[in-house]
Each structure stands twice: as C-alpha cells, then as structure tokens.
Amino acid sequence: MLECMAELHTLTKLPRIGWIMAGVPEPESVSDHCFETAIIAYILAQQLDEPVDMGKVLAMALFHEVGEVRLTDLPRRSSPYVKEFKREAETQASRDILHGVAENVLPLLQEMHELKTVEARLVEAAEELQIITAAMYYAKENRGDISEYRRDAAKYDALGIEPARAVADVVKKRLGEYLGDRPYWELGYSRNATLPDTE
C-alpha cells in the first residue's frame, strides 16, 4: 500500500506540461487537476435529475491520470505521435501501480473512456471543464499565453451534461474577455512528416 501511495504522491509534484508550454509560471500539478475535476464532477452531479453513483464518479475523477505517474503528462502536441499506443500504455501503467491495492479502480477507468454511462460522461465533462476553467483563471491572472485555450472553450463538448454546458458558456465568454483580441501563435503544431491522421 505504501509503495502505491508513494507513487501516487508523485502526481503532486508533476506539473501539467501544457501550461508550462503556454508559459504559465508555477502551473497546477496533475494532482491539482484530478482534485479539481473531482470537485467539479461532484458539483455538476448535484444539478442532475437522474441518479448518479457518486462513489464511481469520485473514483474515476481522482484516479483518471494514475498512469501519468510513470508516463508523465504529455502535451496535446504529442498526440499525433503517441495517441495510438498512449491509452494502452496508461492502462498497463495503471494496472502495475494499483496491483493488489486498488484494482477495483481499473474497470472504472475503462468505463470512463467508453463514455457509455452517466458517471463516465459526467467525469469526462468535468475534466474538460476543469481545463478551460483553469485557462480562464490563468488568463485573468495574466499568467502565460492562454490564447490557445480559446479554441478548447469553443469546442467544449458537455456530453449531454447540461449544467456543464451552462458553466462552459460562461467560461468561454469570460476567457474571451480576458484574452481580448490577442492572437494565437500556433507554435509546435506544424506537421511535415507523413503520419496517419489521429485527430
């Protein structure tokens, strides 16, 4: 148990790489991201009319980045190169980290990826909402170049979780206000090699 706890503690020290690339000083950790995702998922669940298994929701939210303990947090621009095998690598890392300690989390992580249950859609909507909300906070504080995240806010998919969509609409508006007409320099996304399109 202590070995698992010690590995998971690494997430408190592992920064979210996308924010570093955006020039955010002292950005949130992966652990911060998971905690806020759980808080957001809990709040959203209180607004739903249908029954929700909160145990599943909180476990999914708190453990959804467990594989990053060994793989680290990869930025979105790595996606064309690693997306094909990233999910399987994270699944295997999660199995090894949680083996004999919290293996009952593993099927919940699979359920989250499949997005077939209200709990899975709720956590996925909460995770993406956490990202654009963090972008809004950083933009408000003038920390880094957050203009890239205007696109994330515009593309936000609430997966049928209406309270998440309502909050995202406000976030999108506020983010736009904080960024103003600041243009986005799409640095690091050009593709010259012949790679299969994974987007």
TrEMBL record:
Entry keyword Metal-binding: yes
Coiled-coil residues: 108-135
Origin superkingdom: Bacteria
Reaction catalyzed: a 2'-deoxyribonucleoside 5'-phosphate + H2O = a 2'-deoxyribonucleoside + phosphate
Gene Ontology MF, one: metal ion binding
One Pfam family linked to the record: HD_3
Required cofactor names: Co(2+); Mn(2+)
E.C. code: 3.1.3.89
Domain HD/PDEase: from-to ranges: 26-141
Entry annotated with the keyword Metal-binding: yes
Transmembrane segments: none
GO CC terms, sorted: cytoplasm
Record keywords: Coiled coil, Hydrolase, Metal-binding
Subunit relationships: Homodimer.
Protein name: 5'-deoxynucleotidase
Organism: Actinacidiphila oryziradicis
